[in-house]
Design a protein that fits this description.
This protein is of the alpha/beta class and 299 residues long. It has a single domain, classed as P-loop containing nucleotide triphosphate hydrolases (Rossmann fold, 3-Layer(aba) Sandwich). The protein is built from twelve helices and eight strands. An eight-stranded mixed β-sheet has the order 3-4-2-5-1-6-7-8, with helices on both faces. Helix 2 crosses helix 11. The relative contact order is 0.15.
């Protein structure tokens, strides 16, 4: 654990030094327009619904009147295009080619969301040198001209790329499920984040809950742990019910906020959209008759 902490500390120190040098030579930071929101969505482990949240939240925000761009930064496990049901012609990493411009890699997704696909299975992309980073930096800078909100779907876990994305983002959404292993991994993300920044802009999303009380319980447990060991309280954005509509939408390769817009999961997303746009606390989402039957028969 100490070796991992040492590596992360060295990584952040190197990054800070490089950013200072970049400012000296006049490079611009990612997201140049001051009014463009940048939201990174991350998780402590894979398989908790991170990309599904990113895609459906992006579509929900677009339907609410925002111009949204979604960037699939989950290098090696990229699948935003699959959930969008779109054919991807170019990927993020192709911006390293001199003859490829930003417009060449932007795809049209559901409800008009613009997205940039990652690249699945190319591990070399995890280790870009400084010149390659500068090239991506310059080309991606124009994203803020095309969007009111930019959502970054990071990788899962604590590798260098994930840490850099969540440290750079103005807002971070951390998704977990109620399972103990998922909560432990979520805590590890908060710990790493709090070690290298004084900002307190992480909000929790709990996926696959069966009752609203389960969300409260999970949020309380994680908050008690972070306050006790890190001196840090984290906010909450909301929750998503365990809902077969989510699985069916994945099979159809459509966002569930479009394919099953009246489902409990879709209504949860709309509540979270309200929270992001208006700062409102998430209202309880009724599961209706199906929820009653699920509870009655133990599903």
């Amino acid at each position: 654990m100490s070796d991992q902490a040492s590596r992360l500390r060295n990584m952040i120190e190197e990054r800070a030094e490089e950013e200072a040098q970049a400012r000296e030579i006049g490079e611009l930071h990612f997201g140049m327009a001051e009014d463009t929101r940048v939201i990174a969505i991350t998780s402590g482990k894979g398989g908790v619904g991170k990309t599904n949240l990113a895609v459906n939240l992006a579509v929900g925000l677009q339907l609410a009147g925002q111009r949204v761009m979604l960037i699939d930064a989950d290098i090696g496990m990229a699948n935003v295009n699959l959930l969008m049901g779109s054919v991807t012609n170019r990927s993020l990493i192709e911006l390293l080619n001199d003859d490829v411009e930003l417009e060449d890699v932007i795809e049209d997704g559901a409800a008009g969301v613009k997205y940039i696909s990652g690249v699945a299975g190319v591990e070399a992309a995890l280790n870009l040198n400084r010149n390659e980073q500068r090239k991506l930096h310059k080309k991606l800078g124009r994203c803020s001209e095309m969007a009111d909100i930019i959502i970054i779907d990071t990788g899962a876990g604590l590798n260098r790329n994930v840490i850099e994305f969540i440290l750079a983002a103005e807002e971070v959404l951390l998704i977990t499920t109620p399972e103990p292993t998922s909560l432990a991994d979520a805590y590890a993300v908060v710990k790493a984040y709090s070690t290298y920044t004084d900002r307190r802009n992480i909000k929790l999303v709990v996926n696959r809950i069966r009752e609203e009380e389960e969300f409260d319980d999970v949020a309380d447990k994680l908050n008690q742990t972070t306050k006790k060991f890190l001196g840090l309280s984290i906010g909450t954005l909301g929750y998503i019910y365990e809902d077969k509509a989510v699985r069916e939408a994945v099979q159809r390769q459509e966002p569930f906020v479009v394919a099953y817009k009246d489902s409990p999961a879709a209504r949860c997303i709309r509540e979270m959209v309200n929270g992001l746009l208006r700062g409102e606390r998430m209202n309880a989402v009724s599961r209706g008759w199906r929820g009653f039957l699920d509870r009655l028969f133990g599903y």
